[in-house]
Amino acid sequence: MRFADIGQQLRAYRLESGLRAEEIAARLGVSRAALYRYEKGEVIKLDTIRRLAELLKISPLSLLGIGVEYFSRPIAFQERLRQIEEGADQILMVGGAVCYQTTTDAYDGAVAEAWTEAADASTDRVAARAATDQMLGLLTARKKLHQARRPTITAILGEGALLRMLRDGVAAGLPVPERTRQRCLAAARTEAESIAAMMESVPIGVQIGLASAVEPAGGFIVLRGRDRAHVVASPFTPDTPPQGGIGVGSITAADEAVAAHQRVAEAAWRDSLKGAAAASRVRELIRELG
């Protein structure tokens, strides 16, 4: 495994641990600058990997990218997803209400406002705002990465998930003022209308279908790069706030896992509504809840 890959794993697991870089560096007996250099891909000794794994309460194999990676913090999951997307040429997504790379400015704006309002109402406002700013930065980085790389995207959205978004709005469940909640509801409608338009027009490199007859039991993403493929399974939607959501996301590059998820995704795509039929159904859902 390349040291750059180990560095990426280290950064993601540091975020997962909830420890500050200064804390980890102090316990490791190195400077914060040295820790950041490790994260950027500087050569790291096996003994240092072992000690870092102990501090982060993970297996050394996890830092080496062997086996399954687990993330219970949305912010750590988003960072690891961003890292994998850096090398992805193909994205195949099953389940959920949106494919984040294709979301509108209205979606991003509503998420930012809702998260910020919720953070300001938190008992630890400073920490909550810092986490919110970091998470919003990760989402922005993912969107910019997609615009620069333009991987092909095939997404099969779930009708049930889309209905919930239209009913409850973007970033549902957060303690926000009524004006923010109304903006989130409006953003959900705008997003659904954008999805219908993309289904109809089929932009270059983007195909979106709708799983209408059978709702995906659990969402996942298959990301394929030149040298490696990953399967990402997570309960965290793009609008899950940094300090919200209970669940565990998992990531693996195991060949059998990739192959199994690929087969399921291909079958879901065959059975999904597409094109004008999919767009018509989405617009019908909008009218039902409009």
UniProtKB/TrEMBL annotation:
Pfam families membership: HTH_31
A GO molecular-function descriptor: DNA binding
Source organism, top-level taxon: Bacteria
Gene3D superfamilies membership: lambda repressor-like DNA-binding domains (1.10.260.40)
HTH cro/C1-type domain ranges (all copies): 10-63
Name of the protein in question: Transcriptional regulator
Organism, as annotated: Falsiroseomonas bella
Origin organism lineage: Bacteria, Pseudomonadati, Pseudomonadota, Alphaproteobacteria, Acetobacterales
